[in-house]
Amino acid sequence: MLEHGIKPGLSASVSQQTMARSEDVPREGFELGTLLSTGILAAMVAESSIQLIDPHLPPEYFSVGKRFEVDHEAPVLGGGTITLQIKVKEVENNWIRFAFEGHDEKGRFCTGVHERILIQRNKLFDIAYERAQE
Predict the structure, then answer these.
(1) In three state form, how does the secondary structure of 52-118 look?
(2) Does 2 map to a domain?
(3) Which of 36, 38, 39, 80 is deepest in the core (most CB within 10 A)?
(4) pLDDT confidence of 2, banded at 50, 70, 90?
(5) Which range marks the domain in which residue 50 is found?
(6) Overall pTM surpassing 0.70 (yes/no)
(7) Is 83 contained in some domain?
(8) Has residue 4 been placed in a domain?
(9) In whole angstroms, what is the distance from residue 7 CA to residue 96 CA?
């Protein structure tokens, strides 16, 4: 059994400036790139969760994303500051489930769930190489 210090209730609030325009949402004739995209939001949630739990992991471990689920409640224009509130909701050995909310100056714009798996660094690459050889 993996020993770590990650417990339900562990939480953080992270604020970040968003890009005024994102090139990751190409749409012909429609300016979705001026809005905070799901991809950018997912990356921000993943990074925030990693920063939250990494200090509690043994040195030979890291976490990998398993699941990301978001409910968009309102569009957010790029160029402003958003705050993510992320909290560990469940822990089962090497599986961690987070709940998160996103807020901007107008209020909450999203809620969601993110899951990460804790794994030994070398084990992850062993699994990937083994799978590639099949």
Answers:
(1) HHHHHCCCCEEEEEEEEEEEECCCCECCCEEEEEEEEEEEECCEEEEEEEEEECCEEEEEEEEEEEE
(2) no
(3) 36
(4) confident
(5) 11-133
(6) yes
(7) yes
(8) no
(9) 9
